[in-house]
Amino acid sequence: MIDNLLNKKAPRFLLKDSNNKDTSLESFKEGWLVIFFYPKDNTPGCTKEACLLRDDYSVIQSLNAQIIGINTDSVESHRKFQEKYKLPFALLSDEDGFISKKYHALYNIFFVKFSKRRSFIIDPQGVIKKIYKSVNPAIHSTEIISDLQLMQRKR
Description:
The chain is α+β, with helices and mostly antiparallel strands. The chain is 32% helix and 27% strand.
């Protein structure tokens, strides 16, 4: 169950980004990490979510946080999506859905697999501090900023 991940070490991963470069959870040890799982590149909700995160990226970075997106699309699909919308953060390809499943963010319908729209905030120690089980793409970026600010004030 997804709630069992809260306040636990984030599941490790090693996935290819849009440049076919290996990226792991350990690549983000310097600060906070926002992982957003999303269903499909170039769909309306996913594009809105990614572009709003892009627009707020400098604010999120100023909170010592990085962003990565993960779904079951290919490296090539991610490359095109990232270039088309000038996304400044990594998009990772989880084509077999293995990592999405670890994060309880996988729909598996017969032979079709795709990521659910879910997000996680992971602290600098690699612990999941916030889980978004239901994401509204239109306001998600501002929710993340607000939650990062709140969590960092509590430290």
